[in-house]
Every structure is written in C-alpha cells, then in structure tokens.
Amino acid sequence: MKSSLFTKRELDSDILRQGRIDLAAALRWAARSGLNEGVCNHFSLELASDRYLINPQGLHWSEVNARDILLIDGQGHVLDGQHSLEPTAFFIHSWIHRLNPHARAVLHTHMPYATAIALIDDGRLAWCNQNTLRFWNRVGYDDNYNGLALEDVEGARIASQLKGKDVLFMASHGVTVVGASVAWAFDDLYYLERACMHQALATQLAAGKPLRRIPDALAEKVGGQIAGERQQSDMFFQAIQRTLDKESPGWSRLD
Fold it and tell me: Is residue 3 part of a domain?
C-alpha cells in the first residue's frame, strides 16, 4: 500500500540510493557465505525517523538487486517498491529500530553455527578465540522462544532483549546483529558466524576437554583494539561491492 507520507525527495535522495545498494550487497554476499535460509530472514536500514529500507518477501538473497529493496514506514506501509513485505520482518525490525537508537542497520539470520548455539540450553558464546573477542560486552541473549513474531507485543519483547547490545542470540530461533551502518553490521555478522564455527569445531575436537578461556582483562583489551580498527569493516564491504560489480553488472542499478 502506498502512503501519503511518501515524497519524491525521499526517493531521489543519495542516502536512499546508497542504502538500497548497501543492503543488496549485504544480502548477496550473505547468500554467497551460506548465511541465508530459503527466502526467509531479513536485513533492514533506518534512513530517518519512521523511514526504513528492508528486503522484500519472496526473493532469494542471491537475486536481490538494489531496485528490489523496499522503502517502508513504521506502520509497515510500503512507500516504494514492487514487492510485498514479510510480516515477521516488520514486527521484529520495526521494534528493534524503535527501541534501540544505536541499531541503524539490523541483520537477522538463521545462519548455521550461530543458530546452533541458540539451540543449546543456556547456549553462550565462549571467550576462547580472537574472533570472539570483538564481541566482548556486546552480546545479549533472549532465552525465551514464543513462536513466530506476528504481533507488536512479541516484536517489542525481542527488541527489548538487545538492551544496548549489538548481538542478540534468540533461543530456538537465530541471531540478530545491529550496527551503525550496513558495512559494520555485516562485518560483525560475518565474524560472529566464524567465531561460532570455530567454537563448534573446537568443542567437537576437544572431546569433553574444556575450551581455552581468555582472561577478562585481555578479552576487554583485544575487543577495544578490534573496535579501533573499524576501517577494516568498511574495506571489507567495499571489496564485496567491487566483486559484485565485476560479476553481476547491473545489480546496483535503481532504474
């Protein structure tokens, strides 16, 4: 449904154009990295108060182009786009954006290794390897699963579990990563899955032996060091877009 609040200026803005390109790039690379699941899960980006970009219902992430990304408002109205909006995407993402001002980009997946940790009773990220340490003091856990998020109450409940964190493990469900930009959130999403993969492999190889525990003081120090090198996140995302330009000409076009 079109909204009377939509204006041509919003559609033509550079911020809107770049946001669509960034989300399409993140979705395509997530599919290439095996972080997607069917045509489910969703990535969103807040452009301004009550204005969000989000991937459409029914498209595989590997086929999403910038022109496919929807512009919606806080009530779930599609302001611009040729596709429909998936209901759970609206209830989860709208409330996360609303209740967590730091969450400009919101990436929700059922990616294999991170989701596996969410399936374990009291499953937690282990502070045992360098990839994990970038998430020191940045992880929240929702230990209650209430089925599909198809109403405001459940969307608000999930969103409240972030509590200023950047990562949320969702029991029996999946994981959500948020950030100040698509590039930063995607970089964290990628390395979160790597960290969870290493944890799973190490647990299997350990055959009952405990994993190494990095001391808290060192974990905090390394977490700060990694946070101070955010240019790596931007450079990674720029490399992704260059690769897509070579392999899939036209993916970023809006016409």
Answer: no
| pLDDT, tens digit (0-9, with 9 covering 90-100), for 33-68 | 999 999 999 999 999 989 999 999 999 999 999 999
**Number of domain units in the chain:** 1
Q: How many CA atoms lie within 13 A of 154 on its CB side?
A: 15
Whole-prediction pTM: 0.94
Residues 6+ apart with CB under 8 A from 21: 66, 241, 252
**CATH value at residue 28:** 3.40.225.10
Q: Is residue 104 part of a domain?
A: yes
Provide the residue range defining the domain that includes 30.
8-247
Strand-pairing partners, residue 174, are: 170
**AA identity, residue 177:** V
N-term to C-term CA, the chain? 21
Q: Is residue 1 part of a domain?
A: no
Structural domain includes residue 166: yes
Give the pLDDT of residue 9: 57
Please write down the HEC assignment for all residues of 135-163: CCCCEEEECCCCCCCCCHHHHHHHHHCCC
Q: Where are the beta strands (DSSP E) in the chain?
A: 42-48, 51-54, 70-72, 78-80, 105-109, 139-142, 167-170, 174-179
pLDDT digits (tens, 9 = 90+) for 99-126: 999 999 999 999 999 999 999 999 999 9
* Interacting residues of 43 by C-beta distance below 8 A, sequence separation 6+: 23, 26, 27, 30, 54, 55, 105, 106, 107, 108, 182
